[in-house]
Amino acid sequence: MSEHRVDIEDGDGVRLIAFDRPEVRNAFDLAMYRAVTAGLVEAASDDETRVVVLTGRGPCFTAGQDLREMAALAAGTAEDGAGAGFPALLDTVQSFPKPLLAAVHGVGIGLGCTLLAHVDLVIMDEAARLRAPFAELGVPPEAGSSYLLPVRMGWQQAALVLLGSEWIDASRAVAAGLAVKVAPEGTVLEETMALALRIASFPTHATQAIKRLMAAAQHDGIAAARAREDAAFVALFADPATNPGTGLVDGLSAGPPSRHGR
Hints:
Layout lengths: L1 E2 L2 E6 L2 E6 L10 H16 L5 E6 L10 H9 L9 H10 L5 E5 L2 E3 L1 H4 L6 E5 L3 E3 L2 H4 L7 H9 L1 H10 L2 E3 H7 L4 E3 L4 H13 L3 H35 L8 H4 L12
Helix pairs in contact: 1-3, 6-7, 6-10
């Protein structure tokens, strides 16, 4: 099934949700936020779906938030409700009760990086790269990453990623705790689906209980971090001296990096 910027496939207890805006490197606009959120909500309530895998169609995982839509939000010219897509997706991912996996290839930028800290198991193509370019864009971090990245990576590595806006290659992502495995180039979806099918074969009551118990320890920390980040965004955009406006679109060159980084 393909509609509203996502491609959804179901089989053998696994739902694949593929971001499907390859012409803009799968950047999230309001329609895609809504479509991915709806796919997850439906999967959460469907007894036949036991595991969900996220991936991207085309050459990359996702370039994160659609910066033109974000610039329109900053300028006050976005369509009604445009700002609701991002928090709704995060609420859904954060509370998702079933194992959630990601198959990452190409680049994961912004939300394409921070979203992975909410995913249970991430497998990366050996050529994949991640980046959280918030400092370069002049904006605060998002998606609870000010809490989750230090937890996952340690303070120094997280500070380098958030303050230095550096590219993270697949091997470094595994070493830092953002991913579990590097897959040979071109095989990441196959390997991720194989792991998803294995998990889907186990008793559902056990996999969901394990996830619930693991997630409980970090729930309050994520919620508090998101509230602080949201407040920082409001303050940023309310002040003409710091509102990035259209500079969000012009200030980032996010082309796919070379094998050795940007």
